[in-house]
Amino acid sequence: MLLAMRNVLALLLAGFTVGFKVPIRAATAATALRAVSLPRVSDGENVDLGAALARTTEKTMLCFGTHAADFNTVEYMQRLRVFLPKLQAKGISRVLMVVNGDASQVAKLAGLLDMPVMVELLADPAGEAGRAFGVSRGFRPDDERLSSFAKLFVVGIGLGPPWGTLWPVMRGYLGDRNGRREWIQASLQQGQSAGRWPDPLQLSEDGERVIANAFDNTPLLGGWGVRPFELATLRLQNLIMQAQNWGQLKPLDDRCLTQLGGCTVVGAGGETLYSWVDQGLCDLPDMEDLIEAL
């Protein structure tokens, strides 16, 4: 029954994503971001994004998060943290991530998530770089009659455009037989070691090893790649963290409340190898698919 419901939802929601095209600006990021400079959180030095991409000799990855208290930013960071070794093994020698917040907000979130120093975090309180790249600005971004929270609500319940929220959110509850849970378990482990709840893992005393995962005991579906409610549990853990730190992480510019993110990987000379723009809440690229595409 659960599998049948999942398949029906997938078919229904496929209609919202068929024909989606990456914006031209996102497909030519080195050009779109020419002369766009942001301060690096670690040292305050300005980084010219267009130049950084254009001067690439190996491979460079650039991710655009949302604001610092948003699901998409948190999940981008969590995925980068887990997949960084695999990304490096595929020749990515530099990883940059833009967050729509000031330096103190970005540093706070990075500390909460134990981000590796290899990832260069850049602060963009107004979200200008993401808009130059071509990210979605959310539902009716130029309609001043609607509050930003009303626009966020529309996208959050799966309406749009953009239309890409419902299936990524539902997948967190329904699971995915062929999904890959490496980053989910690792992120749950990091959060649980930091004292966050829910805590579905049994960890070693030092928190370095996962001894058991409660989702392994899911009736009938314990062998799935991502079990029902497994990803949703991580998102609940993230939501509680975001709520507890809302005052420090909330967006400083109302436009960033609804603005989404994206990412690109470029090769030598800034040639685009991969490009993605989020089409809803929790609608992020599958890092395994990204790695396989390089």
TrEMBL record:
Pfam families: AhpC-TSA_2. Residues 1-19 form the signal peptide. InterPro entries: PXL2A/B/C (IPR032801). This is Uncharacterized protein. The lineage of its organism: Eukaryota, Haptista, Haptophyta, Prymnesiophyceae, Coccolithales. Keywords: Signal. The keyword Signal applies.
